[in-house]
Amino acid sequence: MEKIVERSLLYDFYGELLTDHQKMIYEDAVFEDMSLGEIAQEYGISRQGVHDLIRRCDNSLLEYENKLHLIQRFLTVKDRIKEIDLLTENEELSRRELAERIRHISGQILEEL
């Protein structure tokens, strides 16, 4: 997964677990694409302090995912929903076959949750 997409997903799922200070700096660095120097100047801290804080935030967000697996589950469910969408476009399946396959996939989704 591309680094910016991974960071965005991690922040979307676990960002609220960061402190307000961490969120502001992380958002400036990751989403506003501000340099370490710009952030340091804005918050009155050193560039090294900004760098360390961002690294700690990345590590914390990854730890949350490693323990909770919410993103992994989300992506799995998303893939299964795409499967259902593809099945509904398949005109060669009978209604019964379609219903059975959708029931099977929905069962997998429920197990994942």
Structural overview:
This protein is mainly α. It is built from 6 helices and no strands. Helices cover 81% and strands 0% of the residues. Helix 2 packs across helix 4 and helix 3 (36-43) packs across helix 4 (47-68). The protein is elongated. The model has no long low-confidence stretch (mean pLDDT 93).
Note the topology:
Blueprint: H1 3-14, H2 20-30, H3 36-43, H4 47-68, H5 70-89, H6 95-112
Helix pairs in contact: 1-4, 2-4, 3-4, 5-6
Span between N and C termini?
A: 22 Å
Main sheet summary: none
Give a count of the beta strands, DSSP E runs of length 2 or more.
0
As a percent range, the share of strand residues is under 5%
Order of H and E elements: HHHHHH
Nearest-integer average pLDDT: 93
Query: Any low-confidence stretches, pLDDT <50, length ≥5?
Result: none
Using only CA atoms, what is the Rg? 20 Å
Secondary structural class: mainly alpha
Q: State the helical fraction.
A: over 70%
General form:
elongated
Number of helices: 6
Name its key features.
113 residues; 6 helices; mainly alpha; single chain
Quick gist of this model?
The protein has 113 residues and is mostly helical. The chain has helices at 3-14, 20-30, 36-43, 47-68, 70-89, 95-112.
